[in-house]
Amino acid sequence: RHWEQAPLLLRRGHPGYYEGLFSTADFDAALRGGEVHFGTHLDVTSYAEGVRETHNPSGRALPAVVWDFYQNGCSLRLLCPQAFSPTVWNFLSILQEQFGSMAGANTYLTPPGTQGFAPHYDDIEAFVLQLEGKKHWRVYRPRRDAEVLPQFSSANLTQAELGEPVLETVLEAGDLLYFPRGFIHQGDCLPDAHSLHITVSSYQRNSWGDFLEKLIPAALQMALEEDVEYRRGLPMDYLQYMGVANSDTVDARRTAFVEKVQSLIKKLIDYAPIDAAVDQRAKSFLHDCLPPVLTQSEKAQSVYGFPARWQDGAPRDVDILITKDTEVRLLRHGIVRLCNEEAGVMLYYTTENSRVYHKEEPKFIELDPEYTDSIEFLLSSYPNHITVDNLPCETLEEKISLATLLFEKGILTTKKNLVQV
């Protein structure tokens, strides 16, 4: 993980390298689409004389209003550009598979000679892709150990708090700048050019500590249920010799109390449901995920290409005719996660997610436990197709029922297009 240790500058020498990813024309098209709202999708900001301000009105971000702000020296930050741009959506959906963590993005359009944001550090790994124009960047090391790979972003910082930059550069179209969590950064436009860049982010709340936040409470709950030592009462007099006020007291009871606590903590590892905690992390990740961007063949061989339609006054081609000989496979390997929970066996999936972050609740199917082997079989068989008859269910009816359910949710594709009979 050497990429967490220092900023990285990549010079392309190719101004059109990111052509087609996102542009000011795409920014304008998003505004004209009528779905962009101030504060929700768009921030109007400025930074001058050490003061960072947000100028968001309420309501829809109408082009005339937005471009007037820009003309008067304000920066424009479009949040969640993947909701408006299929290209950004596709780009991020590929990255989230590579990182195994949510990949998000914001785009920043800044007028010449201005700065939109105060110096700060973030809680994400940031990749700045310069799309148009150029921008002057300064990057600074974390100021103290506690700010190395931080869990949370900082407040706005003053110039006096920064010290000397470890990297100062002007990004031009096609260039890339990476800086890890905790590295302070600020960017400003030179007088002779505007700047459009997209910041791609990943690894937010994706540390060992975040994993242990899931694991340790679960381990403690299991220990309480299975081991009487965790349920025994505390010493009646422990308040008399424990606590900060007694921390310098030499007392055998203190020593025994601390040793008991250490012993119980060490024993927790025996009760730690590591795989179950990983599944809970995966469940959260799938909620964060963008839905997969489908190829033409994936569309044609999934429910998204199914020919159901209204014709001649009635629905046509509605029945999904899956048989024992239909060959199926998962749409993608990473789109589902099987979790054993108190409520039952849940299959979480991403195919019905929104392109807007957490716009909807997590998508899941509650399965009968006897279907667990079939889901695991589909996972282990990917990317190969298997016939429905090979699913390890007890009856043919169950095999077809499960395959049909997963097909309807966009989770399964067929080897051949389903043809109405």
Automatic annotation (TrEMBL):
Protein name (Swiss-Prot/TrEMBL): Bifunctional lysine-specific demethylase and histidyl-hydroxylase
Cofactor(s), names only, from the UniProt record: Fe(2+)
Organism the protein comes from: Zosterops hypoxanthus
The entry's keywords: Chromatin regulator, Dioxygenase, Iron, Metal-binding, Nucleus, Oxidoreductase, Repressor, Transcription, Transcription regulation
EC annotation from Swiss-Prot or TrEMBL: 1.14.11.-
Organism lineage string: Eukaryota, Metazoa, Chordata, Craniata, Vertebrata
Protein's job: Oxygenase that can act as both a histone lysine demethylase and a ribosomal histidine hydroxylase.
Domain of life: Eukaryota
Keyword DNA-binding in annotation: no
Single GO MF annotation: histone H3K36me/H3K36me2 demethylase activity
